[in-house]
Amino acid sequence: MTEDRQATFGADGSLDTETPPEAREGTTDRGEAKDEHETNGGYNRYDVSSLLQKAVRRSDERVAAWAAWELARSGYAWNLWDRLNLYVVEDLRAGQDVALLVERYETLATERWEPDSWKGRLCAIHAALACARARSSREAANADECFRLVAERRAACGADEDPPVEFPVGDLEPGGPYDVVFDQHTGEGARKGRGTRFFKTHGARVGPEEDGEESRRWQRLAMVLSDVEYSDAELDHALAPVSADDPWAEPDDDDLRD
Questions:
Q1: By C-alpha distance, which of 17, 147, 127 is closest to 68?
Q2: Burial of residue 70 (number of CB atoms within 10 Å: 0-12, 13-18, 19+)
Q3: Which of 7, 70, 153, 173 is deepest in the core (most CB within 10 A)?
Q4: What are the mean pLDDT values of the chain's consecutive 10-residue runs (258 residues total)?
Q5: Which pTM value belongs to this model?
């Protein structure tokens, strides 16, 4: 393997062409034959892989960078990228842009360059540091485990038995807390005759932050120009953000038409 890195020079100015230890395939840095799943530094790659994810989860940048470098240089870049991609869905707060960065770094390291080359190792370090600096959260993993266990308890109950714990939406039926979802896009909503008026007035609302001024201006004008005649109360309600305390609360249509 040819090491792809910048040239270095010795104290006398001569070009240093010595093959670095990590370039000798099949051996550790000390020149000893590597065991299966052993890294160049003599570590078990499963341990280093676990260390990588725990380090980025705990925002330990130095350890995360080393673990990524060790895996990449040892021929386990596939393990590194698999673990980092797992991190962005298992241990990252939703909405973090680092998920896209990891994908880009992986593409550069594995498709444009060799994963264990100098450039490939830089990509590995960059990705690990980006992950370690992102906001960690177990929210997705916690939600998945919680919902799975609720489903098990729910399924174990008899037909006439109330489950000890329910899903957040309960039975999800018309007339319940989430009645607004039954609009023209659902069978139940269509049977209730909930057409464009209901959807525009109730189902299309956003919040709790107010939509942008331009967006609200477009929405109001589009509603006014449509074939449906909306009352001023309906127009105001459609543009008003939902309540932060109760985002599903909606008034009756009759109250808005008065």
A1: 127
A2: buried
A3: 70
A4: 44 47 62 80 87 90 92 88 85 78 80 78 88 86 89 83 82 87 89 90 90 93 92 91 90 72
A5: 0.69
